[in-house]
Automatic annotation (TrEMBL):
PANTHER family: ENDORIBONUCLEASE L-PSP_CHORISMATE MUTASE-LIKE DOMAIN-CONTAINING PROTEIN (PTHR43760:SF1), ENDORIBONUCLEASE-RELATED (PTHR43760). It comes from Chlorobaculum parvum (strain DSM 263 / NCIMB 8327). Transmembrane segments: none annotated. InterPro entries: Endoribo_LPSP/chorism_mut-like, RutC-like_sf. It comes from the Bacteria. This is Endoribonuclease L-PSP. Pfam families: YjgF_endoribonc. Residues 7-152 form the Endoribonuclease L-PSP/chorismate mutase-like domain.
């Protein structure tokens, strides 16, 4: 049985990576430092529009499912930024760390479930190389009143 490459898994899953959103400040979406690629925090932007469960950027128990989808979108934006720096997702040998920030309403404690949305899409794309450590962090607010922000740390074979 032939193993699929990261790029082949992406195609087989029907996932189309978005164009990298324009930075909202003075930073790069992703940079290489030695064999590592670091992404800046990526928001759940689709065609320049922010996905915001509840419209206020604050995740509640009632909006958890929508937040999980927003985490997937933000993770795809991070993967797109990685691809630009790496040249190809096939040049990625390991996703090391995923951090998911969740703008949380008072009493919301399911940040880990929201972060699963990002972890699952990473696994779909990278297979075994997508197994990572993770932090799921509840915060009061995020840039642009976003509900979710995601960043990645990956190892690139092409260095």
């Amino acid at each position: 049985m032939t193993m699929l490459t990261n790029e082949e898994r992406l195609i087989k899953a029907g996932i189309v990576l978005p164009e990298i959103p324009m930075p909202a400040g003075l930073y790069q979406p992703a940079i290489r430092a030695g064999g590592m690629i670091y992404t800046s925090g990526q928001l759940p932007l689709v065609n320049g529009e922010l996905l915001n469960p509840g419209g206020r950027g604050c995740v509640t128990n009632e909006r958890e499912h929508e937040a999980i989808n927003a985490a997937r979108v933000a993770a795809l934006n991070a993967v797109a930024a990685v691809r630009v720096v790496a040249g190809s997702l096939d040049n990625i040998s390991q996703i090391v760390k995923l951090t998911v920030y969740v703008s949380s309403a008072d009493g919301f404690t399911n940040q880990h479930k929201v972060a699963n949305g990002a972890s699952e899409i990473i696994g779909e794309i990278f297979g075994e190389e997508g197994r990572h450590v993770r932090s799921a962090v509840g915060v009061k607010s995020l840039p642009l009143n976003a509900s979710i922000e995601v960043d990645l740390l990956v190892i690139s074979m092409d260095f």
